Amino acid sequence: MSTDVNQPVIEEFRTNGGKVGGPFEGGDLLLLTTTGAKSGSEHTVPLGFIRDGDQLLVVASAAGAPQHPVWYHNLLANPLVQVEIGTEQFEAIAVPAEGERRDRLFAHVVREQPGYGDYQARTDRILPVVVLERGDPQDGEAPAEVTNLADKMLEVHTWLRSQLRHVRAEVDAHFAALAAHQGPGRPPAPGLGLQIRQHCLAFCQFLEFHHKGEDEHLFPNVRNYHPHLGSTLDRLHEEHQTVARLQGELVTLLADISSADPERLRFELDRLAEELRAHLDYEEESIFPVLRDVPWPPPQVAEA
User: Fold this and answer.
1) pTM for this entry
2) Closest-CA residue to 160 (of 122, 210, 119)
3) From CA 126, how far away is CA 222, in angstroms rounded?
4) What is the pLDDT, as a whole number, of residue 27?
5) Is 60 exceeded by the pLDDT of residue 218?
């Protein structure tokens, strides 16, 4: 849900394929939909954006207000967001830049849109620069063409596996940075950082949503049509519960990144990765054969 002042802009944006008039006319505008940190409801806001190569940037400026905008607090709690640019819609992971990277990106922002420099001059807070990373599968053995439900599920599994590799690589890079800071006279070691936190949270939130959909919809339907797979589905459901427990422990650890133990993070992430990979392998082996008979996308049912 959006605020009254934003609603006309949002409606005009969606009606006219991303084109709006008034103060936004001619500017680069997107719609960002976040999930409320407290309410859990969806909130959509129109925001100016800046491109930096392939990166898509938004700034939590609030026109230089003394507090961060609500949408920024929402994406810290729920990094998975929806982005609309023109007629294109896609899911993204919202990652605030930190330190030297933030300063470099903000300098680029000001070169492109000098008004953000004026906003920064109005407030003592450092204006966050948020990178909107597309949530598309990155690499792996995803099917080139999705024609059935097994293909669609494999596409999701590929994304999950690629995100696991991505997060693990970030954690390894963090430990390399820790090693570089060891020794007398060295500066303080870097904390875990928002980048690792946001990617871990996004992964966990997507995984939770995916498993909930399987438990509530996919598995009951498979059971109805293939009752001989009952024990297999029971095992998959139990594995979901195990993964959820490990996932919950990881999310709890990430609640306060300033005090989180990096060694504990790596341990919890490895435990989750081992359990999840085994679960995905078993699911693909056990129920994908029957899912290949289900066309995707589902055929349209003619209205009476």
Assistant:
1) 0.84
2) 210
3) 52
4) 85
5) yes
Of how many residues is the chain composed?
Answer: 304
Q: Is 92 helix (H, G, I), strand (E, B) or coil?
A: strand
pLDDT at 183 over 70: no
Question: Are 47 and 33 in contact, with CB atoms under 8 Å apart?
Answer: no
Confidence category of residue 255, pLDDT binned at 50, 70, 90: confident
Task: State residue 98 phi and psi, 5-degree precision.
Answer: -130, 155
Which amino acid type is present at position 109? V
Q: What percent of the chain has pLDDT over 70?
A: 89
Are the C-beta atoms of residues 20 and 7 closer than 8 Å to each other?
no
- CATH 1.20.120 placement within the chain: 149-291
**C-beta pairs of 205-208 under 8 Å, 24+ apart in sequence:** 205/78, 205/79, 205/80, 206/80, 206/135, 206/159, 206/160, 206/163, 207/160, 207/243, 207/247, 207/276, 208/244, 208/247
Residue recorded with tokens 């802009």: 9
Using a 10 angstrom Cβ sphere, with 0-12 exposed, 13-18 middle and 19 or more buried, the burial of residue 233 is buried
- For the chain, where do the domains classified as CATH 2.30.110.10 start and end? 7-134
Beta strands, E only, the chain = 29-35, 42-48, 50-52, 55-59, 80-85, 88-96, 129-134
Distances (CA, A) of 292 to 202, 208, 228: 29, 24, 17
Rg of the chain, C-alpha, whole Å: 22
Q: Which amino acid is at 215?
A: D
Which of 3-17, 203-217, 227-241 comes out lowest in average pLDDT? 3-17
CATH no. of 7-134: 2.30.110.10
Architecture of the domain made up of 149-291: Up-down Bundle (1.20)
When pLDDT is averaged across residues 210-236 and rounded to a whole number, the result is 97
